[in-house]
Specification:
The complex is a heterodimer. By secondary structure, chain A is α/β, with parallel strands linked by helices. Chain A has helices at 2-11, 26-39, 58-69, 79-88, 94-115, 126-131, 152-162, 166-169, 183-187, 191-203, 208-213, 218-230; strands spanning 17-21, 44-48, 72-75, 118-120. By secondary structure, chain B is of the alpha/beta class. The chains are: A alpha/beta, B alpha/beta.
């Protein structure tokens, strides 16, 4: 179904290729495997976009995926693009610096979507989208995203089924925006813990009390729910001020697949 | 007899009942001296609730924490509030409650749920299934919620059921730029309010909220029409405010002496013809 999704949504708008960022982590590796099967490896361009502080494992791990699938690839060091801005703003904290890197990568994906005549394939998973653990208009930017309704735990299962290299499956998840960053360290809980809670809250429509009854700590439930609430804006298009009787986003309703 | 109305056009916090309840109590205080305070549709919860609907429910009984407070407040002043009602079988209604002297006098569940253009109510709400007038200490009244009064049959039913006081509450979005002072949607609500007051020789009071929800604005503009169709009070557009109106209920008698539309109304004919139409067409609507 996921390969069918990629094939349908790419080809019906007269494209046959996708471009995506390949970080060396599990999510983008899974997306590469799906895209290569859906469109053929020659139609997938994997971009490796390291910054000087990126983990030294990232490039060789990404290379394992490129070699295994025979997809096209390109490596661009973003340090010379990012550093002048960071140097000019020495007061930036690591969140702002990380956002600049994520958005610089987005610029390069979209530039290559024109150069390679391709759609940008997103790789954000359901856990990240719900928690808002993404940079808005950075790593969450894409034309289509096959991973977005799969929790991290499910992507791990999928990676295993697809035969993603074991070393990538075994990695500690990280946005790799600064040295030593780990997702679970930053969030304060593991993916397995939060995925099982999100599954009850979102998929099974449990209310917070029912989650507590099911064995989750009240604080954890409240923290996660609040995070999901605060990050709703990242999952939506910008608000348009409605003044007319027919407004883009409210009552001018067509699918993107309109006419295809 | 006189009836002092206070029409509240307020903003709400989306899905935050405690804050909205606080605001109700503030307005009730500000409206001291009024006989009835009318709040807009879904005044306790906000409007575009979507998946928040089940999280902001209340039940109109003295055991419910929200209604306990409101019933207490209704000892001095009658109240009409908008809320999310959950029934015993977990159906959610867009409802309005009329409270007086610590009692729930009437509940109206929105009958018409707009599900077209910008509206998606049919997706989130259960349909109300009755339109009834009810007695208050100021006369017989009827309540309709927004889309309910865009269907002429509802005010007509209330009129036939004895209502002389029509209370319309809404969350009407500003839409349709015109060269006039206000939007298409505001003009429509005012036209129909005035029309029902004239045609039914009754009082019509309508209030609508203000503020924004995800880019959609609500225009406020409460208004009251007397049984001659005259506008006797008008609230501000787009701003939170309290509109006070004194209704001289004796005007009902004078208007109906002048214009005996109610006396001459042939409701049995309406029923006969409606039955024929429905049977002939084999339609049940």
């Amino acid at each position: 179904m996921l390969t069918g999704f990629i094939r349908s949504e790419v080809t019906r708008v007269a494209f046959k290729r996708v471009v995506l960022g390949l970080s060396g982590g599990i999510d983008s590796a899974v997306a590469c495997y799906l895209a290569a099967e859906a469109l053929g490896p020659e139609n997938v361009l994997a971009l490796r976009l390291p910054y000087k502080t990126s983990s030294p494992d990232s490039l060789p791990h990404a290379q394992l995926v490129i070699d295994a699938l025979g997809i096209q690839s390109k490596t661009i060091d973003i340090t010379p693009m990012v550093d002048p801005y960071l140097d000019a703003n020495p007061d930036m904290d690591k969140i702002r610096r990380g956002n600049v890197m994520a958005r610089e990568r987005m610029i390069i994906w979209y530039d290559h979507s024109v150069a390679f005549n391709a759609l940008v394939l997103g790789t954000s998973n359901k856990t990240e989208l719900l928690l808002g653990y993404t940079t808005h208009y950075g790593d969450n930017a894409s034309a289509i995203n096959p991973n977005g309704d799969l929790y991290k735990t499910q992507l791990r299962q999928l990676a295993k089924a697809l035969g993603v290299p074991q070393v990538i499956q075994d990695k500690n998840p990280s946005a790799d925006l600064w040295a030593g960053q780990t997702t679970e360290g930053e969030l304060g809980f593991t993916y397995e813990e939060v995925d099982s809670l999100l599954y009850l809250l979102v998929d099974r429509r449990y209310n917070p009390e029912q989650c507590v009854t099911s064995g989750f700590k009240r604080d954890f439930v409240d923290t996660v729910l609040e995070r999901v609430r605060r990050n709703q804006f990242k999952r939506m298009t910008p608000l348009v001020a409605k003044v007319s009787n027919r407004t883009v986003g409210y009552d001018f309703l067509y699918l993107r697949d309109w006419g295809t | 007899m006189k009836l002092k109305l206070a029409l509240v056009q307020m903003d709400t916090r989306l899905g935050v009942m405690s804050a909205n309840l606080e605001k109700h109590l503030d307005y009730i205080k500000k409206a001291k001296g009024a006989d009835l305070v009318i709040f807009p549709e879904l005044s306790l919860t906000g409007y575009i609730l979507q998946d928040l609907v089940p999280t902001v429910v209340s039940r109109p009984t003295s055991h419910d924490p929200t209604f306990k407070t409101l019933l207490q407040a209704s000892k001095d002043t009658d109240l009409l509030v908008g809320f999310v009602e959950e029934d015993d079988r977990h159906r959610y209604f867009n409802s309005a409650a009329y409270l007086s002297k610590g009692e729930v006098v009437h509940i109206h569940r929105k009958v018409y749920l707009p599900t077209y253009s910008m509206f998606d109510e049919g997706r989130f709400w259960a349909w109300g299934d009755s339109v009834r007038a009810f007695d208050t200490r100021f006369g017989r009244a009827g309540v309709l919620i927004c889309e309910d009064f865009w269907h002429a049959s509802n005010p007509y039913l209330l009129w036939m059921d004895g209502a002389d006081l029509f209370y319309f509450i809404s969350v009407s979005p500003s839409r349709g730029l015109t060269t006039d002072e206000n939007f298409d949607s505001a003009a429509f609500v005012e036209h129909v309010g005035q029309a029902y007051a004239s045609l039914f020789t009754s009082f019509v009071a309508q209030t609508n909220r203000v503020g924004y929800e995800d880019g959609i604005n609500f225009w406020g503009g409460a208004s009251v029409y007397d049984p001659n169709g005259e506008q006797i009070a008008k609230g501000l557009y787009h701003e939170e405010s309290l509109t006070l109106a004194e209704l001289d209920l004796d005007e009902l008698e004078r208007a109906r002496k002048r214009l005996p539309l109610l006396r001459d109304e042939r409701s049995a004919l309406v029923q006969r013809e409606l039955n024929r139409i429905l049977q002939q067409r084999g339609r049940t609507f």
